Amino acid sequence: MPSKKLRITLTKSLIGLNPKHVKTLEALGLRKIRRTVRHDDNPTIRGMLAKVPYAVQVEEEESA
Protein backbone atom coordinates (compact mmCIF):
# COMPACT_ATOMS: atom_id res chain seq x y z
CA MET A 1 0.00 0.00 0.00
CA PRO A 2 1.57 3.31 -1.03
CA SER A 3 2.04 5.88 1.69
CA LYS A 4 1.61 9.59 1.12
CA LYS A 5 4.51 11.97 1.44
CA LEU A 6 4.51 15.74 1.58
CA ARG A 7 7.10 17.83 -0.22
CA ILE A 8 7.45 21.06 1.75
CA THR A 9 9.35 24.08 0.41
CA LEU A 10 10.18 27.21 2.40
CA THR A 11 9.03 30.22 0.35
CA LYS A 12 9.50 33.06 2.85
CA SER A 13 12.52 34.20 4.81
CA LEU A 14 12.64 33.40 8.52
CA ILE A 15 13.72 36.97 9.27
CA GLY A 16 10.99 38.92 11.03
CA LEU A 17 8.69 35.96 11.64
CA ASN A 18 7.14 35.14 14.99
CA PRO A 19 9.81 33.23 16.98
CA LYS A 20 7.40 30.33 17.58
CA HIS A 21 6.84 30.03 13.84
CA VAL A 22 10.59 30.05 13.21
CA LYS A 23 10.98 27.16 15.67
CA THR A 24 8.19 25.25 13.92
CA LEU A 25 9.85 25.70 10.53
CA GLU A 26 13.23 24.65 11.92
CA ALA A 27 11.62 21.56 13.47
CA LEU A 28 10.35 20.67 9.99
CA GLY A 29 13.94 20.90 8.76
CA LEU A 30 13.53 24.19 6.89
CA ARG A 31 16.36 26.57 7.65
CA LYS A 32 17.03 28.28 4.31
CA ILE A 33 14.67 29.77 1.76
CA ARG A 34 13.74 27.57 -1.25
CA ARG A 35 14.90 24.41 0.56
CA THR A 36 12.68 21.37 0.23
CA VAL A 37 12.12 18.53 2.68
CA ARG A 38 9.94 15.43 2.52
CA HIS A 39 7.84 14.17 5.43
CA ASP A 40 5.20 11.50 5.90
CA ASP A 41 1.66 12.82 5.71
CA ASN A 42 0.41 12.55 9.29
CA PRO A 43 -1.58 14.75 11.69
CA THR A 44 1.52 16.00 13.51
CA ILE A 45 3.12 17.38 10.35
CA ARG A 46 -0.23 18.75 9.12
CA GLY A 47 -0.65 20.60 12.43
CA MET A 48 2.80 22.14 12.11
CA LEU A 49 2.01 23.24 8.56
CA ALA A 50 -1.29 24.76 9.69
CA LYS A 51 0.67 27.21 11.86
CA VAL A 52 2.80 28.53 8.99
CA PRO A 53 0.81 28.29 5.73
CA TYR A 54 2.03 31.72 4.59
CA ALA A 55 5.69 30.63 4.61
CA VAL A 56 5.60 27.23 2.89
CA GLN A 57 4.43 25.52 -0.27
CA VAL A 58 3.13 21.98 0.19
CA GLU A 59 2.78 19.32 -2.51
CA GLU A 60 1.46 15.81 -2.01
CA GLU A 61 3.24 12.90 -3.65
CA GLU A 62 2.71 9.15 -3.67
CA SER A 63 5.59 6.89 -2.71
CA ALA A 64 5.87 3.15 -3.15
Structural features, described:
The chain has 64 residues and is of the alpha+beta class. It has a single domain, classed as Ribosomal protein L30/L7 (Ribosomal Protein L30, Chain: A, 2-Layer Sandwich), CATH 3.30.1390.20. 28% of the residues lie in helices and 33% in strands. The chain has two helices and three strands; from the N terminus they run E-H-E-H-E. It has a three-stranded antiparallel sheet, with no helix packed on it.
Q: Main traits of this protein?
A:
Ribosomal Protein L30, Chain: A; alpha+beta; globular; 64 residues; three-stranded antiparallel beta sheet
Total number of domains: 1
**What strand line-up does the widest sheet have?**
2-1-3
* Largest beta-sheet characterization: 3 strands, antiparallel
pLDDT < 50 runs, ≥5 residues: none
Shape: globular
Mean pLDDT: 94
CATH architecture identity: 2-Layer Sandwich
Strand content: 25-35%
How many strand segments? 3
Distance between the termini: 7 Å
Tally of DSSP helical segments: 2
Q: Briefly note the structural class of the backbone.
A: alpha+beta
> Mind telling me the CATH superfamily name?
Ribosomal protein L30/L7
Helix/strand order, N-terminal first: EHEHE
Using the coordinates shown, work out and report the CATH topology. Answer: Ribosomal Protein L30, Chain: A
Question: In the CATH hierarchy, what is the class?
Answer: Alpha Beta
Radius of gyration: 12 Å
The percentage helix is 25-40%
